[in-house]
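yo

u said u wanted the structure for the complex thing, so here. seqs first:
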Amino acid sequence: MLHVGLTHFLVISIALFSLGLYAVVTRKNAVMVLMGIELILNSANINFIAFSKFGNFGLQGQLIALFVIVLAAAEAAVALAIVLNIYKTLANINVDEIDSLRD
Amino acid sequence: MTESSLINIAVTILFLPILGFIVTLLLGKKVKKIYYFENIILFFSLAGAGILAYTKLSLFHDTAITAEFTWINLGNTPLLGEIKINLGIMIDNIAALMILVVMLVSFLVHIFSIEYMRGDPRYNRYFAYLGLFTFSMAGIVLTHNILMMYMFWELVGVSSYLLIGFWFEKKSAADAGKKAFIVNRIGDVGMFIGILMLFTTYHTFTFDEIFAQISNGVLPFNSGFWMTVTGLLIFAGAIGKSAQFPLHVWLPDAMEGPTPVSALIHAATMVAAGVYLVIRVFGIMTSDALVVIATIGALSAFIPATIALTQNDIKKVLAYSTISQLGYMIMALGVGAFQFAFFHLITHAFFKAGLFLGSGSVITSMHHEQDIRQMGGLRKKMPITYYTMLIYSLAISGIPLTSGFLSKDGILAGSYAFGLLTGNSFFAIVGFFVALLTAFYMFRLMILTFHGEPRNKEKYEHAKESKLVMTLPLAVLAILSIFIWYTPNPFNPEQGWLLSKGINTHEQYIPDNTRFDFLTPAKEPVIQNEESASVMYSESYEEAIQESHIPTMLLSLLMAGLGILIAFVFYQWKKINVDKLVDRFNPLYKFSLNKWYFDELYDATAVKGTIGLSSFLGKFDSKIIDGIVNGVATFTRGFSSFIGKFDNIVIDGIVNFTAYLSGFIGLIFRRFQTGKVQTYLVFVLISVVILLFIFNSF
Amino acid sequence: MHSVPYLSLITFLPILGMIIVLALPKTQGRAIKSLTLLITGIQVIIAIILLINYDYSLGGIFEQSSFQFVEKWRWIDIDGFSWLGKIKVDYFLGIDGISTPLLLLTAIVTFIATLSSWNINKSIKGYFALFLLLDTGMMGVFVALDFFLFYIFWELMLLPMYFLIGVWGGPRREYAAIKFFLYTLLGSVFILIVMIGLYFSTQETLADGTRVFTFNILAMMDTNNFTPNGILSPLNPNNLRFIAYIALFAGFAIKIPMFPFHTWLPDAHVEAPTPISVILAGVLLKMGTYGILRISYPVFPEITKQLIWYIALFGMINIIYGALCAMAQRDFKKMIAYSSVSHMGYVLLGMASMNTLGISGAVLQMFNHGTITAMLFLIVGVLYDRTHTRDMDAFGGIAVQMPVYTGVVTVAFFAAIGLPSLSGFISEAFVFLGAFAVDLIRVLTVISISGILLGAAYMLWALQRVYLGKLNEKWASLKDLTFREYAMFIPLALIIIFLGVYPSPMLDLMNSSVNSMVKFMADAQVIYSSFGGF
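structre next:
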C-alpha cells in the first residue's frame, strides 16, 4: 500500500499550480484566466492543508484555506464584475487586445 | 599836494582806462560815438599822469610812495606761517616817468587811430581793447609787488592777443595773435617759477619786503647760485615780453595788427615792460645773472639788426629794429648801465612809436601797401610824414641833437666801461656794430620809401598827406625826439634833469660776493648827490665812465655816419649795385631775408614736436589706454561668453546627459511594458526563476 | 544743532520734486520744466542762506562740534544677530569749509543745467525725474558724514546718470553710458570694500556706554575709536591700511578722473546731452577729489603723508597728459573733456602739497573748474544746438556771426587758460605756490607749470579754429545768443570774474577748515605702518 505522504500532496499542488499558471498565461479569454487563478488559489489551499496536516501547526492551515476559499469567492465576484465592465466598454474580453495598462 | 592825493591820482589813472574798456565794450553796439568816451578818458589819464610825474619828481623826489591793501589773508597757517597777499601801488620816480610815457603814447595813438581805423566794422571795440591795454600797462608800471605785476603782465598779453588778432578774419592775423600769446607764455612760465621761488623764500610778493630780506642775507635755498637762477627765471618773463632772443619770433608776426597798435604795444610800451621788469628787480640780479642778461641783450640787438637789413615790409623792418633796440636796453641793464637803459626806453618809446605811426601814415596813403619796393619818392607827397620820420630815423641812428643819441651813447659808454672794468669787451663791440647796422637799415628804409623815383606810379598818384589828426601825433613825437627835453647839453645827458633827478639809481641788495665789484658802492659816496636816493656805483666805475665818454661818442658817431653813408651809396646814389652784391653773397642774403630760419627751426622742433607728441598721446589715449579699458571689457565679455558656453555645453550637458541616459534606459525598458498582464506574469516567473538561481548560489 | 534742517531740505527737496514730476501728466512739459527750475532755484537760495549763517571760524574736518548745520539721528538699528553685533547707521549730515563751496557749486551748476535742459524734448517727464534724483545724490554726497549714507548717495547718483546718458545721449550713448556705469561701479566696489573694512575696525561709544561698530567718518579719524585687532585698525600690527588706502584712492580716482582711469570721461561727455555734461564736469568730477579730502586724507593720514609724491606725480601726469590729449582732439566737446582731465590734475597737485596754500588752491580749483568747465560745455552746447556738429575744423569765423557769444567764449577760454583777473588763475597760482613750497614735490611742480603753457596752446588753437578766421559760409545764418542762453552764461561769467578779482570770500569760507585739515594731517602719527609687507 502506497503511503500517501506530503510529497504526493505537493505534487498534486504543483500540477494544479502549473495548470493554473498555464491557463493564466496562455488563455485569451479573461474568464478562462480567472479560472486559472482559481486553480492557483486551490493549489495553494492544498499546500496549506498538507503542511498543516504533516507539520506541527494545529489547524492553522485549514483555517487559512477556508479564508482563501472565501477570498477566492469574493475575488471571483469582483473580477467577474471587472470583466463584465471591460466587456461593456471595450466589447471584448480578449486579454491580448486589452493593453490600456501600458499607457 | 599830499602823498595820499598822489595815490588817489595813481589809482584814478589806473582805473579810468578799464572803465573806458567796459563802457565802450558794452555800449559799442548801441552807441556809435562811444569811442569818444574812451578818448576823453585817456585824456584825463594823461593829464593825471602828467600831474603825477611832475608832483612826484618835484615834491616827493626822494621817497617812493606806496599804498597797499590786503587782498587775500589766510592768517596764521599751520605749516607756512603767516600768509597775507597784499596788492598795492608804488610810485617811485621811474614809475612816475614810465606812466607818463605810457599815457602819452597811448593818448597819441588813440588820437591817431580815430582817423586810421575809421570805417572799420568793429571801430568801437578797437578803442575798448586799447582801453584794456592801457589799464593793464598802467598796472604793470604802478604795482608794488611782483604778483600783481605778473597778473597785469598776462593782461597786457591778452590785450596784445586781442589787438594783434583784431582783424581775425585774416588767418595770418589770428595766427599771429596766438603765436604772440603762446610765445609770451613760455617766458611767463619761467617768470612764474621765479615768483614761486621768491614767495617760497620770502613769503611775500612785495618788492620792498623781498629786497629788505635779501639785504639781510636771506637767499633762495641759501645760495647765491639759486639767487642767480631766480633772477634769470624772472628775466625769462622779460625775454618773452620784450621779444628777446630766443623768444623774439612773435614780434615780427605781431605786425599783423593795426599799425597804431604796433606803435603803442609792439614798439613803445608793452615790449618795454620787459626792460621795466628787469629795472624793478635789478636789485636781485647777481653778476652771473647780469652777464647772461647782457649776452641775451647783445644777441637780441645783433640778430634782428642783421635781419632788418634785407626785409622789404616796412613794418617788419621796424619790428626787427624794435627787437634790436630792446636788446640794447637789456644789454645796458646787463652791463650795469641801469639808468641809460631806462633813458633809452623813454626815448625809444617816442621815436619808435613815431616811426610806426609814420609808417601807418604811409601805409594808409598807399592803400595798405607795406612793401617798400612799391614805394619811393613819397617825400614830395607827404612832407610832414617825411620830415617827422627823418627826425625819428636820426634819433634811432644816434645822431647828435636827437634824444636817441643821448641814450644810445650812454648805453655804448656803459658797455665800453664794462669792458674796461671786466676785460669783457664783447658787449661794446656788438653795441658799436649794431649802431652801424641800425643807421644803415633805417636809412635804407627812408631812402626806399621817400627818396628817388616812385616805383609804383599808380599808387603814388593816389598818395597824399594824412589828415591833421594823424600828423599831429607825428609832430608831437618828433618834438619829443629832440634832445632839449632831456638835457640842456646835447652831448652830456648827465647834466639833464632826467638822469640827475628823474632816475634814482637803485641799490643792489644781494650779498657783496655775488655782485660785480663796480656795482658795490663805496662806503663814502663818491659824488654827493643830494637828489638821488642812493648811489649804486663804485669809484672805479665812475672813473671808467668818465674815461669812456669821449671815445664812445666819437666811435658811435663814426658808426652811425658810416651806416648812413653806406645806405646812401647803395640806394640813393646807387654807386654800388645792390643786386650784384646780393648775388655775390646770396647765402648770407637768404639767411637774413629768411630771418635766420628761426620760425622754420621752431616750427620743425618745438611746434612739430608738441603737436606730434600730442597727436601721439591722443592716439595713445584712444588706442592704448582706452584700448586697455575696452580690451578689459572685450576680454570680460569674451570670458563671460566662454563661461556662458561652458555652462551651456559642459554643465548643462551633464544635466542633459543624465536626462538623456534615463530616457535611453527608459526606451529599453519600455519594451517590457506591453500592457498585457500575462506578459508581466511571464516576466515575474522568469525573475523568480533567476532569483531562485541567484539565492541558490549563496 | 540748527533749528531748521537746511541740509535735509536742500538734499531731499529734489526727491519731492521728482515725486511731483512723476505725478504730473506727460503732456505738461512746461510745468515740469518750471517746477524743476523752481526746485533748483530754491536750492540756490538755501545754499545762500547757509552761506549767510555760516560761521567762518569753525574748522570741521575731524570734530563734530565744529561742523555746522549738523543733523544726526539713528537711522538703521539692527540688534538681532549675535554674530554681527549691533548694526547702527546714523543719519548724519553736516558741512564745513570744504563741503560748503562744493554745495554752493552744486546748487549753482544744477540751476544752470536746468536752464540748459530747456530744449530737451524727448520724454520730458522721465528726464526731469531722473535729473532731480541725480540732484539729490550729488547734494547728499557733499553733506553726508556717515560713510554708509555717503555711499548710498554716491550710488544713488550713478543710476540716473546712466539713464540720462544712455537715453538722452548722442549716437554712441549706450556704449558711453555702460562704460561710465561700469567704470564708476568698479570704483564703488573698492569704496564699499574699504567702507566695510573700516566699519569692522571702528567702534564708537553709545550713550549707555556700550561700544558698537560705526560708519561715522569722523569716528574713523580718531585712533582711539579703533579696535585693537580690526583689519584696518592702525592699532593692529598686521593692518591692511596701505592696501585699503590704495583701493579707496582708486575708487575716488576713477571719479576724478585720474590717469589712467580717465577714458570713460571723454566718451561720457561726448555722448551726454549738454546739461548732463555740465553736471558731469561741473559737479561729479569734484566728488572724487572731495572724497579723497573728506575720507582718504583724514582717515588714513599717516599713509597719505607717505604717498604725496605719488599723488603729485599723478597730478602732474593729469595736467600734462590731459593737455596734450586735448590738443590732439578735433571734437570740440572731447577737447573740453580732456581739458577737464588736465584741470583736475591741479586739484591733485594742490592736495599733495598738504599745506594751506595748496589745499585752499585745490578746493578753490574744484569750485572754479566747476564754473568754468560748466561754461565751456554750455558753449559747445550752444554751437551744437545750432549746427549739429562738433568737429572743430568744420567751423571757422563764428566770431563774425555771433560776436556776443564769442565774447562769452573768450572769457571762458581765458579763464580756463588761467588768465589773471579770472578765477582760474587764483586757484592755479595757489596750487603752485603751495606745491612749490614742499621740497619733495618741487620738481614735479615745476614740470606741471608747463601745463599753463600747453593750456594756452590748445585753448587758443581751438578758439582760432572755431571762432576766428574767415566765416565758413555754411554758418552764415547763425543767430547770436537768446535770452535763456544769456541767463545761463551771465551768472557763471560774473562768478568767474568776481572770484578772479576778489577771491577772498571763497578763501575765507574754507580757510578754517583747510587750516584744521592741514594741522590734523601734520599731527598724525604712524602707529604701525603697513608698508612692511610691501
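DSSP finds three helices and no strands in chain A. Chains A and C do not touch (no CB pair under 8 Å).
cya
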